[in-house]
Amino acid sequence: MQMDVNPASRASEHDYKDVPPVVRAEHAESSLTRMIEQQTAKVPSHVFLAASLTAMAASAALEVMGRSRPSRFVGQWVAPLLVMGVYNKLVKIFGSR
Description:
Layout: H1 31-41, H2 45-64, H3 68-75, H4 78-94
């Protein structure tokens, strides 16, 4: 007989299928947020990927030219551009709620 790590784990399982989502006024989004999401959804997703790849190439080119500080500055743009692309994709999938 195999023993569970926590023998009381089955006692704490609940079925949450019939529970409605919690909707509160403080969870509501402002009209500014909705407008930003609507405008962001119009931008094609590949634009953010292309911009991040361009930033990587520009950073590498600046580094090869011996301009370390500008290279590192431009190289730091890659992560925010990719995050904006993920946000853009999520807005397109789930929409503004």
